[in-house]
Batch of 4 targets.
Target 1
Amino acid sequence: MKDIKAGLVGVTGYTGMEMARLLATHPSMRLVRATSRSQAGAVLGNLFPGLRATACADVQVSVPEADDLARNCDVVFLAVPHGAAMDFAAELLKAGVPVVDLSADFRLRDPQVYAQWYGQEHRHPELLSQAVYGLPEINAEAVAKAKLIANPGCYPTSVILGLYPALKNGLVHTSDIVADSKSGATGSGRKAAVGSLFCEVSDTFRAYNLGKHRHTPEIEQEVSLVAGEDMRISFNTHLLPINRGILSTIYTKLTQERTVEDIHALYTDFYADAPWVRVLPLGELPETRWVRGTMFCDIGLVVDPRTNRLLIVTAIDNLCRGASGQALANANLVCGLPLQSGLDFAALAP
């Protein structure tokens, strides 16, 4: 059995915490470096009591230093905000260490688009062409050969997986697609902010960043590649009063009349070899509780004959499938492990 040493830059955020949780039980990969400037010197089992008596419990948090990570790690996860990841990635890649970046720094292929949506220039545009977009159902072979993985965003994962078979098979028009997505409060990160306080989130439901969410160009980039043409999507986000989960309802227009049975059969066949995509039986629709803490993406399909629309509903866990779990799946491929290593578990329900 392999013993792969992993480093984690940014352990104190929700995605860093989730990554530590997943690595604590991984059969072939162990966490040897966990970094945080604010918590340097702390021991993970004390910092996060849920990790006590696990394989990660005694890992001491250190200040992030690329040289130290390169010397001691076989693969490094970057769970830091956009803008902070690109310099670490450049140094680690120069030292020959594979990188899985959970930020947005390498998702967009055009540095000008990155600057437009993220408000800063990309300091390492020469690396963008090396980055592989890490959606395993689509790019597993490329991921396995890559050194730099751009881990997809949580919202884009839910939307792209829902749309991919329909676009690939010309089922829907490429114009007038609306993706209506709702996320739990962990999607905004662990930083202190009034908008994510308990009393601001509980017992309410609100839209935010309509028409200007930063995941928009990422979604458009990837679905345009599938469709073979430049696409624009109306992507709209909302905040749910729950901790984890994303539910996306995608409204499309069919190119011709099709029965829901035909489309369901096509989706089922398309994802037949994808262990984490569950195309639900006809008449069932996804719920966030049935994917909580898992790698599953549940897909439900409805055809509205009155409007000739195909409605695609997806549910994922934003922290696991939408971030840390997907990053670990990509690292499995990069390190020559089976895709599902350390990632097969049922939902945390209730």
Target 2
Amino acid sequence: MDELILHPLAYARRIRGMTRADLAREICAAAERRGLRSGTDKSRVRKWETGVTPDKDSRTYIADVFKIPRKDALTRDWPHWLPGADERVIPLGPDSAVPALREALRAAMDPLDRRNFLTFSGSALTALATSWATSDTQPLAQAMNGGTVDEDLVTMLEETSPQLNRLATEQRQHAVILLDAHLSTVVNLIRHGRHTPVIAQRLHTMAASLSQTVAWNRFDQGLHTAAAKLWIAGLHSAHANGDRDMGAALLGDLAYQASWRGYPQTAAGILERALTRTSHPTARSLLQLRLARAHAAQGDTRATHAAITVAEKSLAAASGRPVPAWCSWMSEADLAVDTGQCLLDLGETRRAHQLIREGQNLLPPSRDKTRGVFLTYQAKSHLDLAEPELAAAAALKSLELAQRIGAPRCVQLVRDLIPRFEEHPGAQGIPELLERAAA
């Protein structure tokens, strides 16, 4: 099996010739050396290698086994401090877009890429964001290889690609192959075509936008390695064009993924760099809101409220420029619900519940996937308020919606709440929810 699709813990033990049972014994021995006990067995190691995060003590014992400083295990994101966890990120440069796009396409078409963990370390992603924030682009050169790229073909792709990008989630699930094909076509034209710098710029604009859309498709399917590589590839194309707002968008998506996977510190580091070189108020509002979510997940109340305040002011700010397409959907509904989710993380449940409900009411019918996510937030807020019946109703609506539009990520959000619903087996709606979630 390709080592790049192994979980870093599996990779670390395999390069040392260790089975899961071997590693479990070594962890127990590390605990005994500290005068403590660990109940680790090969089954628990398997869970860690398929997405479960070890507790603080277990991470300390694992660090002992691999001779890694204890502070790394306690201060760096799991599992990125493990040996071999870093995968090389292609650095930004004048000729970096094509290799990044080729690597992203390979990952996107790889049926084995079904692991629920990131293959890039937080430090590698933050370094990429720092490079983007501190480097300048160079003019695109005229490509002299291959056949001449027909301008009519480029125009046709420019007209059809946005139509595919704008499809509602329920329809986009039927157009995945078309989106993949459009991206592949654009990449091949960049790689093999003879084109002027102006045509190259138009192609890279499409490559960045299509990479973003295809990445979100892979992310929704749980294919996190492919999603990350596609967002990174889009960043390279945006950088080649000098499109700072689009570059910030792609970094913002990488940060969103990091938060989703439970690495808010990495997300905050990426977003802080993305915010240094994006200027449109709506774009800044969205990035500040994601930064607030990352701070809230870390329990930083002051930083969370500061970012929310900036997000509110930025969204309300007038701008003579058109809103970038990638954040044109950003609205008061998103601000309300994500602020509510921040407050949930900070324990401000009543106010959080009110904001989430308000945001739900503001959301237009066209954004069903977002509605499904918001409904799970609403369900969680009802659970926090000891209102299991209302929570079940919201969760069931989310589940039905997600299954109808083909949104596995939303389905998983509901399933993640099931253990909390199982604490209230007699409450109205919960037996039906448990049955639907198990189907």
Target 3
Amino acid sequence: MTSLQLPLAVSLGDPAGIGPEIIAEAWARRDADGIPPFFVVGGAGVLHEAAGSRGLDITIERIEAPAQAIEVWTRALPVLGADDAPYTPGAPEESGARLALFSLVEATSRAALGEASGIVTAPISKAELAQVGFTQPGQTEFLADAFGKAREDAVMMLAGPSLRAVPLTVHCSLAEVPDLLSKELIVHRARIVHRALQRDFGIVKPRLAVSGLNPHAGENGKFGDEEQFVIGPAVSQLESEGLDITGPHPGDAIFTPRARKSYDAALAMYHDQALIPLKALDFDEGVNVTLGLPVVRTSPDHGTAFDIAGKGKADPGAMIAALRMAGDMAARRATDG
């Protein structure tokens, strides 16, 4: 188990989703799976009922300060504060959305104050949160805004046992992608990925591979010219800076088993180009990592799964992976200063 001076802060996610039950399951498996200490912000009642829905008999203890979580950890699941909501699995409602937003904001605040070693966010419903004042496209953008970072500086990486993939454009329509892509964006985000792989993952000389946008990576302009005039020049500039980087590679070839052995992270041009292979390969262990922030942030790479919430069917693997990865990253940052 990763040794941390400070616990991780975990946001509850939507109480009607699978977040509470997989958090409870993760705590129950803390010793077997080597999970570092964490506390959950709010939702003690929700967590108790969610644990019961899985047949888990666990103790939940409210704490008044994050520092208490380390001492409580061995005997009970620590929950910060008394904020709560009804447990309505599969049926999201306003009070639950308000609790989810409060939990996210407070977990972020505790990490910003140096009271937590990192943030792990359970799945939210963006549509539900929008009804109670959440204006960002997603949690990645929320965290960038919260820490005063430009959104292009907060880079989403999806990581699993088989693949690390970075979508260079994220929450936008496919029609917008060509206009959003630029040499400057690719260079900027590739640098962030390179530094994060060194700092947070301990890879001394990261190897990056960059996908093309068009079929066959454009085939010399026959199917589009972004590879010739945007992506290729970005790769060339990064090579001149000393990065170990290749591309643009055809999108249908960059994720093959042989190709994956040649790089530490793949940079994709849009959301689904990165997420489809990651979820196909590592759905139950996929982790969403936000690179470029002053604090560690991870999340399981799946949604609220309202359809199976409270039925004991949700696999906790991605939450466990997110907690372990956050702990490893935070410990490495603490060691490196």
Target 4
Amino acid sequence: MSHVVRRRPDGRLILLLGALAACGPISIDMYLPSLPSLTLAFGVSSSAAQATLTSFMLGFSFGMLLYGPISDTYGRRPVLLGGIVLYALATIACMLALSIDALVLFRFVQALGAGAAAVLARTIARDAHEPTDAARVLSMLSIVTSIGPLLAPLIGGQLLLLGGWRVVFGLLTLFGVVCALAAFFRIPETWPREKRANAAVLQSFAAYGRLLRDPVVWGYLLCGGMAVASMFAYITATPFVYIEHFRVPAQYYGLLFGLNIVGIMLGNFINTRLVGQLGSLTLISSAARVSSGASLFVALASLTGWGGLWSIVAGLFLVVGVVGLLSANCTTDLMHRYPHNAGAAAALFGAVQLALGALASLAVGQWGGTGPNGMGVTIGVAGLLCYAGRFLLVRLHNRPAPDAAAA
């Protein structure tokens, strides 16, 4: 398909793209209640179990960087299909892993495949819709994507009762196969041949250099990336903080986790209603303020013990609730700033988000113990850096992109 007519928001396409984009989040969230049981199954420490999360996020980040420029050169559809097949095969390997080291490796490969679905679902949504609709479409996509993570920890907790952590990967394998079939039959090619890079694929990767020389890009990366870093610090720490430190039963962990997914959905719903009236920069600025303030509150509550569990839960609701709003607007603005390298722009943004998330996850794991202190400090630092990104955007947003002709 060499030509795609841009359209008004298409509910069926958004639903399918949302399911594809959820491959990564579901693969993380359904697995979270299993982390404490992994320490017993393999006889390892909590930090070793958390390494399976860190390796997934690193693989996810690397995969995004790989697929964006390749899709700019060869098209979206073949790259998307190849990534989803890789995801399904690696998930089977995870289910059969016999050691924690093997599971860490297979999770990395699983994430490489999931990265294709994540970055290309958003890029396809941008390709197929009018620019004025793109931020709203991506927020709608995030609402759909949030449904899976909302249910995933609840399902994962119940699967532990049925057959343990391997059953979780069995269900994820089925999900991957269904996604691959749906993408094969329903996803069109949205990047026409006449718009693809004429040069070698290595020159498509050179777009990363142009992007990273732009201080406005760094504003987007810090603003959206540090919000995600806070979220992944929460994702990595709370299975131990909630279940072991605050004694929340594993089967009910998903309820507290789902509360934050509801917050993400609410933030994205607000974005769909207001982005056309207020503009993306205003919403990014306001959401970054909320994220930074709430992050510092979580740090204070974690370090002092003030308010106990519910004080941390309340602060995390605000921290996590604006992540989708920030991601949708930062991604859309960045792709519009570099329209001929939209795949690379989306890939860079997603990869940096996941890399920062992996670093935050690693920081929490290295802190040691099951208390909330490591999570609180990590989230507090991320909040301050998110505000630094907001400062860059507010000051430099109207500056022209460098090498605009080349980009």
